[in-house]
Design goal:
Layout lengths: L3 H8 L6 H9 L3 H15 L4 E5 L1 E5 L27 H13 L4 E5 L8 H14 L3 E2 L4 H11 L3 H11 L14 H7 L6 H13 L4 E7 L5 H18 L2 E8 L15 H14 L5 E3 L2 H4 L1 H7 L6 E4 L6 H4 L8 H10 L3 E5 L5 E4 L15
Parallel strand pairs: 1-8, 1-9, 2-3, 3-4, 5-6, 6-7
Antiparallel strand pairs: 9-10
Helix pairs in contact: 1-3, 2-10, 3-11, 5-7, 6-7, 6-9, 7-9, 9-10
Cofactor: [4Fe-4S] cluster
Keywords: 4Fe-4S, Iron, Iron-sulfur, Menaquinone biosynthesis, Metal-binding, Oxidoreductase, S-adenosyl-L-methionine
Pathway: Quinol/quinone metabolism; menaquinone biosynthesis
C-alpha cells in the first residue's frame, strides 16, 4: 500500500489518524517520510536555522525504587553505590556551565523515597539565590514520588517547586504511554495517565514541559500510534509541550540486554512520523546523545529543527552504553554540515545568538561523565 496519500494530507495540513500512523510505521519508505516531515518542519521554521541549547545534565541522585528493567543507572535505596550529590557539588556544576555560556540545568535523578519536598525546594531556592540559570528539572516520575512522600497532590508539589525556582519540567519517563508496555518494562513506574496528568499540571501552575518517546521495547506499531495520540490530545487541551524528543532504547548493560536493538533507520522513521502526526508541537529535538552526531545531523532533514542540548554531562544513557560526546564547536560544525545556520537558544526557544559563517564559540568545554 502506498503511503503517498497519507504524506500528501499531512503536508497539506490535514490531521493524521492513528490508522495513518500505523500505516506509516508498517512502510519502509523512510526517505519519503523524511521529505514530507521536512516540509512540515519548514512550515513551522522557514528559516534555514537549527537551534541548540548549552546545558548540563545533573543527575543529583541515583537512588531509585522504581527498578525499570531498561535502566543501568539506578541503585536501590541503601545500596553502597548509591549517592545524593551535596549542594556544593551541584553549585560547582552550575558554575562550570555558566562559564561556557550555558543557560539550562536539566536536573534529574531516581525516584528517591528518602528525599522530602523540602529537599527540593531548599535546593532550588539556594540555586536561584546564587545563579541566573534556567532550571529545567525533575521528571513526572520524580514529582509523583515527591507527592507520595509528602502526601500532597502533584499539582501542589509542582506549584511549590515552581515558587522555589523550578522553571520547566522535562518529559522523561514517558517511554511508551501504554500500560501494556509499561507493565512489562517498568511495572512500578507512574502510569501513562499519571505522566500526562503531571504534564498538564505543569501548565496549570505556570510552567511548560517537553514530551518524549522511547521505542524499542518490543511495543506494537499500534502502541506507538497511541502514544503519539495521547501526546497530541494533551497538547490540544493544555499546550503544555514546547518540544518533542524521541530516541531508541539502549538495552546494553540493562535487564533488557537480550532485546534486539533498533537501527538508526528506525529512529529516523520515528522522528518523521512523529513530526507528521504531532501537528501541534513546534519544536522537535534531535537525540544525538543516543544516536551519535552523524545520525543527529541527519535528523535535521527528517523533521527536527533543533539539535538539543550540548549536555556537558550525562550519566543515565551512558550507563546503558551510549557515550556520544559533543561540545559547542562540534555542534556548530555538525549543524553547518547539515546545511543549516546554527543558533544558540534558551529553554523557551528564544534565539540568543546566531553563529555566522566560520564563527566559533568563545568558550568551549570537554564533555565529561
Amino acid at each position: 500500500m502506498s503511503i503517498d496519500a497519507i504524506l500528501e494530507r499531512a503536508v497539506n495540513g490535514e490531521r493524521l489518524s492513528m490508522e495513518d500512523a500505523v500505516a506509516l510505521y508498517e512502510s519502509d519508505e523512510v526517505e519519503k517520510m523524511g521529505e514530507a516531515a521536512n516540509q512540515v518542519m519548514l512550515k513551522w521554521h522557514p528559516d534555514p536555522v537549527a537551534t541548540f541549547v548549552i546545558g548540563r545534565n545533573v543527575n543529583y541522585t541515583n537512588f531509585c525504587d522504581t527498578y525499570c528493567r531498561f535502566c543501568a543507572f539506578y541503585r536501590a535505596p541503601g545500596h553502597k553505590e548509591g549517592y545524593v550529590l551535596n549542594n556544593e557539588e551541584i553549585f560547582k556544576k552550575i558554575e562550570e556551565t555558566l562559564e561556557v555560556g550555558g543557560t539550562e540545568i536539566l536536573m534529574q535523578g531516581g525516584t528517591n523515597p528518602d528525599l522530602p519536598l523540602s529537599y527540593y525546594t531548599n535546593l532550588l531556592k539556594e540555586i536561584k539565590e546564587r545563579y541566573n540559570i534556567w532550571m529545567h528539572s525533575f521528571s513526572p516520575a520524580e514529582v509523583w514520588k515527591i507527592a507520595e512522600v509528602s502526601n500532597m497532590s502533584v499539582e501542589d508539589v509542582l506549584r511549590e517547586l515552581h515558587e522555589a525556582g523550578l522553571d520547566s519540567m522535562p518529559g522523561g519517563g514517558a517511554e511508551i504511554l501504554t500500560e501494556e508496555t509499561r507493565l512489562r518494562v517498568s511495572r512500578l513506574k507512574v502510569t501513562w495517565e499519571q505522566w500526562i496528568e503531571a504534564m498538564k499540571a505543569t501548565k496549570r501552575v505556570g510552567m511548560h514541559g517537553t514530551a518524549t518517546m522511547v521505542i524499542g521495547f518490543g511495543e506494537s506499531f499500534e502502541e506507538r500510534a497511541l502514544h503519539l495520540q495521547r501526546v497530541r490530545d494533551a497538547q490540544d487541551e493544555t499546550e503544555c509541550f514546547t518540544a518533542f524528543i524521541s530516541w531508541l532504547l539502549q538495552p546494553e548493560n540493562t535487564g533488557m540486554y537480550k532485546t534486539k536493538k533498533l537501527t538508526p533507520r528506525d529512529y529516523l522513521k520515528n522522528v518523521a512520523i512523529s513530526r507528521l502526526f504531532l501537528d501541534n508541537i513546534a519544536n522537535f529535538q534531535s537525540s544525538w546523545v543516543t544516536m551519535g552526531p552523524e545520525i543527529g545531523k541527519m535528523s535535521l532533514q527528517y523533521g527536527c529543527n533543533d539539535f538539543g542540548s550540548t549536555m556537558m554531562e550525562e550519566n543515565v544513557v551512558s550507563a546503558a552504553g551510549a557515550t556520544h560526546k559533543v561540545n559547542t564547536n562540534l555542534t556548530l560544525q555538525l549543524i553547518r554540515e547539515a546545511g543549516k545556520i546554527p543558533a544558540q537558544r534558551d529553554t523557551g526557544y528564544n534565539i540568543l545568538k546566531v553563529y555566522h559563517e566560520d564563527e566559533t564559540a568563545d568558550k568551549d568545554f570537554v564533555m565529561q561523565n
